[in-house]
Write a structure and sequence with these properties.
With 374 residues, this protein is an alpha/beta fold. The protein contains 12 helices and 14 strands. The chain has 2 domains: 64 residues, Orthogonal Bundle (DNA polymerase, domain 1); 297 residues, TIM Barrel. Bound molecules: iron/sulfur cluster (SF4).
Length: 374
Amino acid sequence: MSIANTPQALLGMKPEEIAAVFAELGQPAFRAKQLVEWVFAKRAASFDEMTNLPKATREALATRFVTRSMQIAKVTGSADTTRKFLLKLHDGRYVETVLIPANPALYGGKSDRRTLCVSSQVGCAYDCKFCASGLAGFTRNLTAGEIVEQIVQVEAHAGERVDNLVFMGMGEPLANYSNVTKAIEILNADWGIGIGARHMTVSTSGLAPQIKKLADFPLQIRLAISLHGATDEVREKIMPVNRKHNLAELFEALEDWNARRKQFLTFEFILIENINDSLDQARVLAKRARGVNAKVNLIPYNTVEGLPWVRPSEPQQDAFLDVLTKAGVTATLRREKGHDIAAACGQLRLKQETELGIIESPIPAKRITIGAGG
Ligand code: SF4
């Protein structure tokens, strides 16, 4: 089934869109409100549950809309560790969503937050060299409904509410701008999923023009940058996107963001031995972070057998961190592997789609290590 002939997902619709449907059906406005309540507050998974709507209305709705558009195909991990959900989409493709238990080091900084790392695209066009999501290229954008449904599916399965969201799963969220921002509006709304805007972080590989656009977005979401290199020469080895939007352009957009928004920025920086872990890089990074008031999350690379890149030694990681903190930059170093945000996000989907023959095995498969999404 192509995305074009898919019934529309109610989870991706705003009340005014639902009201327009009811007006078209010649139904009173209060029926639209009832439907919004079934979809979001009551999380109805089928039209049969919507008992206060007339049967004929439910049947009419069922010909055009769906309450759910994906299924959980696989879950790995357990309740007290990071859990990865492989979700099968209506067109047979897969995405991943990662539920991270309370961890004080993560975004938001409080220990009782359950964080969900969501995907925004099937595949990714940006080919960051540490990431599984980009290995088989870009397939398609997720719809707003598919983004919202990741939260709904995981909450129903886990039996708990998610209170922190990071757009760090598969895909570059700012390359799917309209669907991602619509999903954020639905996720934030009182009539919708009700997650505070300050508890949502969009992580980008550095699409400078879209960062400028996002600075006008009214909700007070947070922004994280997958930086991974403090100079163009180093960053280009890790992130090909830097050839299109170099650091000068990126930092101009970040200064613009700072001038218009109050939220702190976060830089994600995967430390890779002899690639970006020199103290010179640390010094340049410190200067850049101070310049735009950014916090830095250092993530030691997970070494994979057969690959040239290596995790730096712990003394080197500590020395790098030390340069940042002595320069007055707020920085964290996350050593624990299991809790790395979006750890290896994209791997499950890649394995599943390769096994099913949906995509050809992207070589070198062993390159897969950690996805920082976006
Ligand atoms: S890190 Fe993000 S932008 Fe880069 S390839 Fe992976 S999903 Fe795409």
